[in-house]
Write a structure and sequence with these properties.
The complex is a heterodimer. Chain A has four helices and three strands, in the order H-E-H-H-E-E-H. By secondary structure, chain A is of the alpha+beta class. Chain A has a single domain, classed as Arc Repressor Mutant, subunit A. In chain A, strands 1-3-2 form a three-stranded antiparallel beta sheet. The longest helix of chain A has 28 residues, at 85-112. The radius of gyration of chain A is 16 Å and the shape is globular. The N and C termini of chain A lie far apart (39 Å). Chain B is of the alpha+beta class. In chain B, the strands form three sheets. In chain B, strands 13, 14, 15, 16, 17, 18 and 19 form a seven-stranded mixed beta sheet that branches. In chain B, strands 2-3-8-5-7-6 form a six-stranded mixed barrel. In chain B, helix 6 packs across helix 14, helix 12 packs parallel to helix 15 (454-479) and helix 12 runs parallel beside helix 23. The longest helix of chain B has 36 residues, at 352-387. Chain B is globular, with a radius of gyration of 37 Å. Classes of the chains: A alpha+beta, B alpha+beta. The A-B interface holds A 29-32, 34-35, 48-51, 53-54, 57-58, 60-63, 74, 76-79, 86 and B 1-2, 5-6, 9-10, 23-24, 26-28, 30-31, 33-35, 37-38, 56-58, 62-63, 66-67, 70-71.
């Protein structure tokens, strides 16, 4: 019944990596992360808030990010997420894996052609 | 770390659901505000921006649900919700709940009661012992392959000194003790134990100390005793000062040195030991027996780490063979003495088998009741779910998935069965308490602790859950069936004939199973009745009986003989007493005393023997067919004489002239002076053994039973007999006085127990089946109201409607009876070994039980039939 918009079809498991990457620069709140992913990917990935909040809960429980309520610049209360030490390590591992996988796939595609 | 986070975060959500929800809502709200602001910044009007933001987030509730379902705590939340809902549903229909729980309790209670008996007798590890899995019993196997229960001290010492596979081998023997702590003695069962007995068992004293190795060096040098905690509390005042206190054991002064832990009462279940003394005190406590060479010790040991039963058995067997060589016995390669090693249990080896079979049989019978209860509950559940179809359909329409509904229903069913398990456990508590009071013969010296423990509770829960799954799954699947939505359109009466057919089949099954139980109960009753009428060959009525153990009082043989003589004179003087005698073996106590006699100097004939006092034959009214009974002149100095039974006379001297012939018994020539009629000796269905009676004066046996024939009921004389014993020696323990009839009732104990248990189970099963039949008939009557209305309107009278309905009930019952009879016919041969001469297909029992069933079926269908027949045709026709 649920109708997925075509722009949100993130590869399973990559959302976590994108969130960690977004947070590697500075602590952010949910909307900020969503926009950061959208903008950096030039609108290719649009993140559904439901998936985003679920991912936050999952990452927070896994100890990869911490959450804290704080004032924003425009004086609102928002839940800010920070990358933990374990999160940073995980991001490095995931990035390395991803790069390896992408270049392998690229080589395969090139060989095919 | 992350596991910790998982746990704490999840628990926080579970414990403060509202705070967690608010937190989430705030975050979503903030997201919307930020999004709105961003849209405004990109040029939309505030209203459009707000709409766009909302569209982006979607349904806020959905978001919340999505996040919620993500954590592990959401599964817990569902279960909690299911349990709460189940509780509400069950609470809303208390009668249904109570009836179902009661029915399950009956079934589960039956199984649990029998299981606690099995647990106590066979399964429960010996209480109070540490590391029992490394403990093994050692039994000497003779060269011919037969296995003995006990070995001698010399045998024990030989193994203990040489074994490298065991961390310690201990030995113990039984001794009857009379302990006097100032004043009257108390008769208790004692264990004479090796110095390392408690160490090998891993039992620690709660007070004082246990034995040392020194106390096992020199015979007679260490008069010290360890007592049980209950003895210490009841007889020694429960004070610390009891350690070091002097007591008198069988006439010998001893010192109390320690108290054993509460739960420890020796190794054998049912033979509660209350005192432990060093083996080396045997010459003082049992003066007649031979410490070193008599085989009276049970051996057990602890396996050394890394050693297994197999390697221990090999090593010990080669030691036993080496010992035989040392003793100068010729040892053939294939037939050397060996040692059997097996894990330590609370039963003497070999007794476990028949008991396990018997208990297994009872457990089987109890399982039938559980099966009946399960079937009964399945019928009730499926009837109930018919009335709840609408509810199910509505919940399905509102979005509950089939698996969600099923889980909900199963939760409800399992809750019912768990409550039933608790009820069953309660029934088991009551029933075992009643069984423990079941009168056992005075001289059986058994004390059973049957009460259920944690293992039994686990068993009850497990069995109930399993039964719940087996019998609950079908109704639940049916209720949460695929065609849920179509039911909203359906009307509530239920469609199709599948369900009534199913419930009819269930009733037939219940009737058949309970008939099997009742037939078994009936057969046991017949066997009991039959057994009571079997002529034992002697007259057990009006005979009082008391077991006397002068050795345990510290009497030497001369003192014991004097005691028996004096007691006999004093008891003969009691008014109402006709004849007094003694026997070393009370008949029909299921015990035997195998021995052998030698004929013509070389032929050994296996016999059973008893040393009896002069008037033994008159006391039991056991007729002599030829020759004479023993007289006072047959004393130690006279020539050895014996009375033999018919069977022995016929077997050994087929020419029919046994009288005056001689044989050797324990190397003394003995002359047959009388031939006694055959009787029952150990059990009622035994093959009559060859039996020899000796005069007590010539073949001495210290332990004797006093037999007193009185003119009328012997029980009123019990007091006078007791006083006669104490008038000889006031420090003796009170002798237990019973009657021969009561004591020999032990031979019918299996039949009695089985008749009671299967009979009770059968009655419970029958009541359940009758209730089920009633339910089905009432249901059928209410569905046929319209049909009956038409019949009545067309002129059918009340009796023809009654007949119609009852015929329906009887048809079900007769199918059940036929199936039940076939099942019973196939299974009763399992119990034929307990039935004496009663055939397992006994016609009277089968017919009688079927008749009972037909009567019950008529009654169960009559009541609903009455109600149906009384229907007013006008009302019935208007009802739809």
């Amino acid at each position: 019944m649920t109708h997925e918009p075509p722009t949100t079809d993130l590869i399973q498991g990559t959302l976590d990596m994108l969130i960690l990457k977004a947070l590697s620069l500075e602590p952010m709140h949910g909307f900020g992360i969503s926009r950061r992913i959208e903008q950096t990917s030039r609108g290719v990935f649009k993140v559904n808030p439901g998936s985003l909040l679920t991912a936050f809960q999952r990452l927070e429980r896994a100890g990869l990010i911490d959450a804290e309520w704080r004032q924003t610049d425009n004086a609102r209360r928002a839940k800010f997420y920070t990358l933990t030490h374990a999160g940073r390590k995980r991001l490095d591992v995931e990035t390395a894996n991803w790069t390896r996988r992408v270049s392998a796939v690229a080589r395969l595609l090139k060989a095919e052609g | 770390m992350s596991l910790w986070r998982q746990l704490t975060r999840g628990l926080r959500v579970l414990t403060s659901r509202h705070a967690a929800d608010r937190d989430l809502d705030d975050e979503v709200q903030h997201y919307i505000e930020e999004a709105t602001e961003a849209y405004v910044a990109s040029g939309l009007s505030p209203a459009e921006a707000r709409r766009a933001a909302r569209r982006e987030v979607g349904n806020a509730t959905n978001v919340r649900e999505q996040v919620r379902d993500n954590g592990w705590e959401s599964a817990v939340g569902t279960i909690v919700a299911d349990v709460r809902f189940a509780g509400r549903m069950l609470w809303k229909s208390p009668v249904f709940t109570l009836v179902v729980v009661f029915v399950i309790s009956l079934g589960s209670g039956a199984v649990t009661t029998i299981f606690s008996g099995m647990n106590a007798l066979l399964l429960r590890p010996v209480p109070g012992i540490t590391g029992i899995d490394r403990l093994v019993t050692l039994r000497p196997a003779r060269a011919d392959g037969t296995v003995a229960q006990q070995g001698s001290y010399a045998y024990y010492a030989y193994l203990r000194e040489r074994s490298h596979t065991m961390d310690g081998i201990a030995a113990w023997g039984r001794v009857s003790l009379s302990i006097a702590a100032g004043g009257q003695g108390t008769a208790v069962l004692g264990n004479m134990v090796s110095g390392n007995y408690f160490d090998v068992l891993g039992v620690r004293p709660v007070l004082g100390r246990f034995f040392t190795a020194d106390e096992e060096r020199t015979p007679g040098s260490h008069p010290v005793v360890v007592v049980s905690q209950s003895f210490w509390r009841s007889r020694l005042g429960g004070e610390k000062a009891a350690i070091g206190r002097p007591v008198v054991l069988n006439g010998v002064p001893f010192t109390v040195i320690g108290v054993a832990p509460e739960e420890f009462h020796g190794i054998f279940t049912g033979l509660r030991a209350d005192a432990w003394v060093p083996l080396m005190m045997q010459p003082q406590l049992r003066p007649r027996s031979n410490l070193t060479n008599a085989s009276w010790l049970w051996l057990f040991g602890r396996l050394r780490d890394g050693m297994e039963v197999q390697s221990a058995q090999q090593e010990l067997s080669s030691l036993a063979a080496a010992r035989a060589v040392d003793l100068g016995q010729s040892v053939a390669p294939g037939a050397a003495p060996a040692v059997r090693v097996s894990s330590l249990t609370g039963l003497p080896n070999g007794e476990g088998g028949p008991l396990l079979g018997f208990m297994g049989l009872l457990l089987g019978a109890a399982s039938l009741v559980l099966l009946i209860a399960g079937v009964n509950v399945a019928a009730m559940l499926s009837a109930r779910y018919v009335t709840r179809r609408r509810e199910m359909a509505v919940r399905a329409a509102l979005g509950a998935g089939r698996s969600r509904l099923l889980r909900q229903l199963l939760t409800e069913i399992l809750a019912l069965f768990l409550l039933g398990a608790l009820g069953g456990f309660m029934i088991a508590l009551l029933a075992t308490a009643a069984l423990e009071r079941f009168p056992l013969p005075e001289n059986a010296r058994l004390s059973l602790e049957l009460s259920p423990d944690f293992r039994v509770l686990t068993f009850a829960m497990g069995v109930s859950l399993l039964t719940g799954l087996v019998f609950g799954l079908a109704p639940a699947l049916q209720a949460a069936g695929r065609d849920l939505t179509s039911r909203l359109r359906d009307d509530s009466t239920g469609s199709g004939s599948r369900r009534p057919f199913m419930s009819r089949m269930l009733i037939v099954a219940q009737l058949a199973l309970s008939l099997v139980l009742l037939v078994a109960g009936g057969l046991f009753l017949r066997a009991l009745n039959h057994g009571q009428r079997i002529d034992p060959g002697f007259d057990a009525s009006n005979v009082a009986l008391a077991s006397l153990e002068p050795e345990s009082w510290g009497y030497d043989p001369a003192e014991a003989r004097r005691f028996y003589l004096t007691l006999r004179e004093r008891v003969e003087a009691i008014p109402g007493v006709e004849v007094v005698s003694y026997t070393g073996r009370v008949p029909l106590m299921m015990s035997s005393s195998p021995d052998e006699i030698t004929i013509d100097g070389s032929i050994d004939v296996p016999v059973h023997t008893a040393s009896v006092e002069v008037d033994y034959f008159p006391v039991l009214r056991l007729p002599l067919l030829e020759g004479r009974a023993f007289g006072r002149s047959d004393d130690e100095r006279a020539a050895r004489v014996a009375v033999v039974n018919e069977t022995l006379a016929r077997r050994v001297w087929p020419d029919g002239r046994a009288l005056g012939r001689t044989f050797r018994f324990r190397d003394r020539p003995t002359t047959v002076v009388g031939i006694a009629r055959d009787a029952k000796y150990a059990t009622l269905d035994e093959a009559t053994p060859s039996f020899v009676y000796f005069p007590l004066a010539q073949v001495w046996q210290p332990t004797q039973a006093l037999l007193v024939r009185t003119a009328a009921d012997p029980r009123p004389s019990a007091r006078a007999i007791q006083e006669a014993v104490l008038s000889i020696d006031a420090l003796l323990p009170h002798p237990g006085i019973t009657t021969l009839r009561e004591a020999s009732a032990i031979v019918l104990l299996p039949q009695r127990a089985a008749a009671i248990v299967t009979g009770m189970l059968g009655i419970v099963g029958l009541l359940l089946a009758a209730a089920g039949l009633y339910g089905v008939m009432a249901f059928s009557a209410s569905r046929r109201t319209r049909e009956i209305g038409i019949r009545v309107a067309l002129g059918a009278d009340e009796s023809s409607v009654l007949r119609l309905m009852i015929r329906d009930g009887l048809r079900l019952a007769s199918i059940g009876i036929v199936i039940g009879l076939v099942l019973a016919g196939l299974t009763t041969r399992l119990i034929s070994s307990w039935l004496f001469d009663v055939s397992p297909l006994d016609g009277l029992t089968f017919a009688g039980m079927s008749a009972i069933f037909i009567v019950v079926a008529i009654v169960a269908s009559y009541v609903p039939a009455r109600r149906a027949a009384a229907v007013d045709p006008l009302v019935a026709l208007r009802a739809e």
